[in-house]
Design brief:
By secondary structure, this protein is of the alpha/beta class. The longest helix has 16 residues, at 5-20. Helix content is 29%, strand content 28%. The protein has a single domain (5-203), classed as Vaccinia Virus protein VP39 (Rossmann fold), CATH 3.40.50. A 7-stranded mixed sheet has the order 5-4-3-6-7-8-9. A two-stranded antiparallel ribbon has the order 1-2. The protein is built from 6 helices and 9 strands. The structure holds S-adenosyl-L-homocysteine. S-adenosyl-L-homocysteine is lined by residues 61-64, 87-88, 90-91, 93-94, 108-111, 114, 135-137, 152-153, 206, 208-209.
Length: 214
């Protein structure tokens, strides 16, 4: 697959669209411009890669809408070299955006098929996060604590084990709700026992599920 001037032009337009929709962090916009989203799409949808929409990626899952990726990333205020734990690798697109911002990413996917596909795709593009096939509900305590945690599936509530793996001063972003809709929720861990929760609008994600799938 190639990343042509035409693709870069379409990405420039997408960035302009995201700016109009309220994304203002230039580092996030630069990362969206840098990552060729069409590399992460199923063949039937490649021509729509720069539409601001979610699309199927197989195994009943979706690649998130660029606006949603940008919005979650912006709320996390990613700094270079920060350790970021991502729950729900999916296509790997959000992973690539985090890596373009200089984060050290640890990413977990519960579906074997998607884990294998995203790992191959990201490595072929020169992105080398730490990949795990497993249940993100449990996080990855052996590599923690993390300065940021991003959940890219709708969680019924923020898993307590993930808050435990957040460093003090760290932030976790997650859509929280049921399958009909979720509220984008930011949890900031201000001390070992205190977390400040703020809400940032309505979204619809595929659900965060327990356990793994072969
Ligand atoms: N950021 C991804 C979004 C993928 S959709 C992208 O843009 O492509 C959400 C993903 O979360 C799906 O791949 C789903 O299989 C995964 N998922 C759901 N529950 C999970 C869990 N408990 N642990 C890890 N991954 C999970």
């Amino acid at each position: 697959m190639q990343d042509t001037y035409r693709h870069k032009g379409l990405r420039r337009n997408l960035v302009d669209e995201l700016k109009l929709k309220g994304i203002s962090d230039q580092k996030v916009l630069d990362a969206i411009y840098a990552v060729p989203r069409h590399f992460f799409m199923d063949s039937g949808f490649i021509n729509f890669a720069y539409k601001d929409s979610a699309f199927p990626i197989g195994a009943g899952q979706t690649i998130s809408q660029p606006y949603t990726v940008a919005f979650q990333t912006q709320l996390l205020t990613i700094q270079p070299l920060e350790k970021v734990l991502e729950i729900g690798t999916g296509s790997g697109y959000q992973t690539a955006v985090l890596m373009e911002m200089g984060a050290k990413v640890y990413t977990i996917e519960r579906q074997k098929e998607l884990y294998i596909k995203a790992k191959a795709q990201l490595e072929a593009m020169g992105y080398h996060p730490h990949f795990f096939y497993g249940d993100g509900y449990l996080g990855m305590p052996s590599y923690g604590p993390y300065s940021k945690i991003i959940i890219t599936a709708g969680a019924p509530e923020i898993p307590a084990m993930l808050i435990e793996q957040l460093q003090i001063g760290g932030k976790l972003i997650s859509p929280v709700g049921d399958k009909l809709g979720q509220v984008m929720t930011l949890a900031e861990k201000v001390s070992e026992t205190e977390t400040i929760i703020t809400q940032h609008g309505n979204f619809i994600f595929v659900p965060l599920l327990k356990g793994t799938k072969q």
